[in-house]
């Protein structure tokens, strides 16, 4: 999973003069919790702005055209060019977080599946760096919206965006389901599954749980490819189940 993580103001501003617009302790805690043990990718300016370098318990990748000849953090930091990073992201199966700055977000957002966004309820005057406004990008959809919080007169909330990948993020109904390019071994049963979802009034998330579990159940072949597809379907079902749990938890906050 490749994710972006960022804090933005009402205009999607993220910084000024290589500094954050606001320092919110809970935002910092979330950043640490999510990125802990993962790969973090950043530009050279973001790297230079870190109060502590490198970020502990994370493998730091710094995008730069001028890597140092000698690094004191050889085992923890890797200096690399932008194109090399793109090639890495196109094939990696590691848990990766893109952490800034503005130009790096813009270049690498197309490779991201998820964006963890702290939305600050304020428009700052002095801003020189922005995150792309993914509210205006059709392929991104907001998945989770957290409760409104407040720190030092700054209101904010956490939210998660997911990239719409077509079939796995479609609202399940007969009209759009027939347009989906389904695997051949699932085609014969797809309407039966959707009828079941509609009859039981399961809703979007639980409907997709049923869909992917059902599809995985059709893959009884000993073929390695079928087994790999079944694993992917079950992971998708697990993702939607967790999403529904999070939705219910968020509703309890309201």
In words, what does this structure look like?
- Strands 1, 4, 5, 6, 7, 8, 10, 11 and 12 form a 9-stranded mixed beta sheet that branches. A 3-stranded antiparallel beta sheet has the order 3-2-9, with no helix packed on it.
- The model is unreliable at 167-200 (pLDDT under 50).
- It has 2 domains: 2-163, 3-Layer(aba) Sandwich (Dihydrofolate Reductase, subunit A), CATH 3.40.430; 167-253, no CATH class.
- The two termini are 29 Å apart.
- With 254 residues, it is an alpha/beta fold.
- It has helices spanning 25-35, 44-49, 82-91, 102-108, 174-177, 184-187, 190-200, 203-217, 224-253; strands at 2-8, 13-16, 19-20, 39-43, 59-63, 77-80, 96-98, 114-120, 129-130, 140-145, 149-151, 154-163.
- Helix 2 links the parallel strand 4 and strand 5 (59-63).
- The chain contains 9 helices and 12 strands.
Domain unit count:
2
**Succession of helices and strands:** EEEHEHEEHEHEEEEEHHHHH
Q: Taking Cα atoms only, what radius of gyration do you get, to the nearest Å?
A: 21 Å
Please, how many helices?
Answer: 9
Shape: globular
> What is the residue-mean pLDDT, rounded to a whole number?
81
- The beta-strand count equals 12
The helix content is 25-40%
Q: Which helices and strands, and how do they pair?
A:
Layout (H helix, E strand, L loop, with lengths): L1 E7 L4 E4 L2 E2 L4 H11 L3 E5 H6 L9 E5 L13 E4 L1 H10 L4 E3 L3 H7 L5 E7 L8 E2 L9 E6 L3 E3 L2 E10 L10 H4 L6 H4 L2 H11 L2 H15 L6 H30 L1
Parallel strand pairs: 1-7, 1-8, 4-5, 4-7, 5-6
Antiparallel strand pairs: 2-3, 2-9, 8-12, 10-12, 11-12
Helix pairs in contact: 7-8, 8-9
């Amino acid at each position: 999973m490749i994710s972006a993580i960022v804090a933005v103001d009402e205009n999607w501003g993220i910084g000024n003069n290589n500094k954050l617009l606001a320092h919110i302790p809970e935002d910092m805690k979330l950043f640490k919790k999510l990125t802990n043990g993962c790969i973090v990718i950043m530009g050279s300016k973001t790297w230079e702005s870190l109060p502590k370098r490198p970020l502990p318990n994370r493998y730091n990748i710094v995008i730069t055209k001028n890597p140092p000849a000698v690094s004191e953090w050889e085992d923890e930091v890797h200096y690399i060019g932008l194109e090399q990073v793109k090639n890495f992201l196109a094939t990696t199966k590691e848990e990766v977080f893109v952490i800034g700055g503005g130009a790096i977000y813009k270049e690498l957002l197309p490779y991201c599946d998820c964006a963890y966004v702290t939305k600050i309820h304020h428009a700052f005057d002095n801003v020189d760096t922005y995150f792309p406004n993914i509210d205006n990008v059709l392929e991104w959809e907001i998945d989770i919206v957290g409760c409104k919080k407040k720190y030092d007169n700054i209101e904010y909330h956490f939210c998660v965006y997911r990239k719409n990948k077509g079939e796995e993020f479609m609202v399940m109904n007969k009209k759009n389901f027939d347009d989906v390019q389904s695997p051949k071994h699932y085609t014969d049963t797809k309407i039966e599954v959707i009828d079941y979802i509609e009859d039981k009034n399961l809703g979007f998330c639980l409907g997709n749980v049923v869909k992917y579990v059902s599809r995985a159940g059709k893959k009884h072949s000993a073929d390695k490819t079928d087994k790999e597809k079944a694993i992917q379907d079950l992971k998708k079902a697990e993702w939607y189940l967790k999403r529904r749990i999070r939705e219910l938890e968020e509703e309890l906050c309201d």
